[in-house]
Design a protein that fits this description.
Layout lengths: L21 E3 L4 H11 L16 E3 L3 E2 L2 E2 L2
Antiparallel strand pairs: 1-2, 3-4
């Protein structure tokens, strides 16, 4: 199944670069909140954005293979 990075302006997807890793948002509420705050994304109507169980970040948003959140 295709995966696209959720970061606004990032065009990475797993069909384009098979070697790029993709990471789902943590289930832990505290860690998930940190990730959401770092992504700084909002809904088109200006409301708070919430990731779904299929939302992913590509590996380019992590430092040296370790997440920076």
């Amino acid at each position: 199944m295709p995966k696209s990075c959720c970061v606004v302006g990032c065009s990475n997807h797993n069909m384009k670069d098979k070697k790029l890793s993709f990471h789902i948002f943590p289930i832990d509420p505290d860690r998930q909140t940190k990730w959401v705050n770092t992504v700084k994304r909002v809904e088109p109507d200006g409301s708070e954005w919430t990731p779904t169980h299929t939302t992913v970040l590509c590996g380019e948003h992590f430092l040296s293979g370790k997440n920076r959140f």
